[in-house]
Design a protein that fits this description.
Elements lengths: L1 H24 L10 E3 L10 E3 L9 H7 L1
Antiparallel strand pairs: 1-2
Bound molecules: zinc ion (ZN).
């Protein structure tokens, strides 16, 4: 269980870093300000995407904070 604990701590740390960076940039951490997220392999074709749930498609950090 030690490794799992270590790993989850690492992921948490990385997420916090990412969110802090997005806050500076003013962009949604889930879609990096694109307003949409790609699904799996389809990201390579750019033909299928869905509106980001985190920011409701606006791509802004303040909207992400409000929704989350
Ligand atoms: Zn978003």
């Amino acid at each position: 269980m030690g490794f799992l604990h270590y790993f989850s701590r690492l992921v948490e740390k990385r997420n916090k870093k990412r969110i802090a960076f997005c806050k500076l940039e003013g962009t949604c951490p889930e879609c990096q300000g694109n307003g949409v997220n790609m699904l799996g392999i389809e990201q390579y074709t750019m033909s299928y995407y869905y509106v980001c749930n985190g920011c409701n498609g606006s791509g802004s950090f303040s909207d992400w904070v409000e929704i989350n």
